[in-house]
Every structure is written in structure tokens, then in C-alpha cells.
Amino acid sequence: MRILLSEDDDRIATDLSASLTRAGYAVERVTDGEEAWFRGDTEDFDAVILDLGLPKLDGLTVLKRWRAAGRRMPILVLSARGTWAERVEGIDAGADDYLPKPFQAEELLARVRAIIRRSAGRPSPVLENGPVLLDPRQMKVTVDGAPIALSPQEYRLLSYLMHHAGRVVPQIELTEHLYAQDYERDSNSIEVLMGRLRRKLGVDFVETRRGFGYLVPESSE
């Protein structure tokens, strides 16, 4: 899962980037509103963390421009001001959630998980499909109740496919959402990663649709 972090405070951004990375997200950070607007308008992200007090272009303007342009990624707004009127304005402008500063990293992670889950139409906090269960809160995966140890990239791959169960996901989309922009990867990195994931799961769980991508079928349960 790929997150756009729009925060100009270095200390907050560094702490958030570390927490998000440990939670299994690929993080792209920007420090001003103009860059945030451009990146969010031209690239795909699974969620955006948007500070309202950005330089060059304020976060509320960025948010309104994205929604006016039809950009639908889930957005968590941050603000040091936190008045009720500002919260209402942010939500009405298209924010999916609002978190006033200061906050605990655990709360932010819970809210990020929630907006990603809702945007994918998954009401339960735990993703379960056939024998495979993925708990984003604890970053744990089990197959028929037995825990499976996955690398961060293997976890991101499985998480993305399970969030989008029932849809064929092209390989290029997986590449865009699993890796940060500056990450060096080979052209066949997704195929190699998929092979490792399938061996560890030990079950016929991810289907390959030749020429189209990969599919985790919708659970029949």
C-alpha cells in the first residue's frame, strides 16, 4: 500500500514515515502544497495524509482541487488548529477523516487502516478469504490458522490483492502501489515476489490471468 504524506514539519514527517513504514506501507513524502497537489493529481496512492498548514498552497485548497478533478483516493486531514468549523470545512471538502495535532501514531495508523478499508468496501478490520486471514492491525497472516512469516514486500502484495479481491490487478498497478518511487526494482520483481508469496502460503490462493494480471477471487463464505 502506497501512502502520500504531505507534511512540512520534519520531525513529525520523520516520525510518521517511520511508523507507516513499520506498519507495511510504502511512503512518499512531500513538503509543500504545490508538490502535494501535483503528485496526488498525477499518481495513484492508496491513501493520503494531508496537513492543512502546508506552504505555497494550503491543504484545504489542495483537497478541493483533487476532489474537483475527480481524484477519489481516501484522505486523512491533519491540522494543528483543530476547531470544529475547520473540521466541518475539511470533511465537506471531501476529506474521509480528520485528526487534530498532537496525536498518537497508533491512532493515525488506525485511521489510515480504516479509510483504506472503507474505500475498498471492506467493513471488517480483518481480511479473510478462504483459508487466508490477514490482520492489518497486527500485520499477521495465517493460513488455516497457522501463522505465516512474510517479508514487508510480500505482506504489501498480499494485502493489496486481498483489499481488491474479486478484481484482476495488473502487474503495473502492483508495481506502482507496492514500491516507493525511489525504490530500485527489476522488471520482473512482481513475478519473483509473487512466486515467493505463493510458496509461503502453500495454497492455491492467487490466480494468474495471463496478459491481464493477478486475482484473489471473492470469498464464497
Overview of the molecule:
By secondary structure, this protein is an alpha/beta fold. It folds into two domains: 2-119, 3-Layer(aba) Sandwich (Rossmann fold); 127-215, Winged helix-like DNA-binding domain superfamily/Winged helix DNA-binding domain (Arc Repressor Mutant, subunit A). It contains eight helices and eleven strands. The strands form three sheets. It has a five-stranded parallel β-sheet with strand order 2-1-3-4-5, sandwiched between helices. A hairpin with a 3-residue loop joins strand 10 (207-209) and strand 11. Helix 2 (33-42) packs parallel to helix 3 and helix 6 (152-163) crosses helix 8 (189-201). The longest helix is centred in the middle third of the chain and has 15 residues, at 105-119. The protein is globular, with a radius of gyration of 18 Å. The relative contact order is 0.13.
Structural topology:
Blueprint: E1 2-6, H1 10-22, E2 26-30, H2 33-42, E3 47-51, H3 59-68, E4 75-79, H4 84-93, E5 97-100, H5 105-119, E6 127-129, E7 132-135, E8 140-143, E9 146-148, H6 152-163, H7 171-178, H8 189-201, E10 207-209, E11 213-215
Parallel strand pairs: 1-2, 1-3, 3-4, 4-5
Antiparallel strand pairs: 6-7, 7-8, 8-9, 10-11
Helix pairs in contact: 2-3, 6-8
Secondary structure category: alpha/beta
Principal-axes geometry comes out as globular
CATH architecture of the largest domain, by name, is 3-Layer(aba) Sandwich
Computed Rg: 18 Å
Q: What is the averaged pLDDT score?
A: 90
Approximately how much helix is present in the residues? 40-55%
| Beta strands, count | 11
Specify the number of helices: 8
Main sheet, how many strands, which sense, barrel?
5 strands, parallel
Task: Fill in the CATH topology of the largest domain.
Answer: Rossmann fold
Instruction: Output the CATH homologous superfamily of the largest domain.
Output: Response regulator
Q: Which ranges are low-confidence, i.e. pLDDT below 50, for 5 or more consecutive residues?
A: none
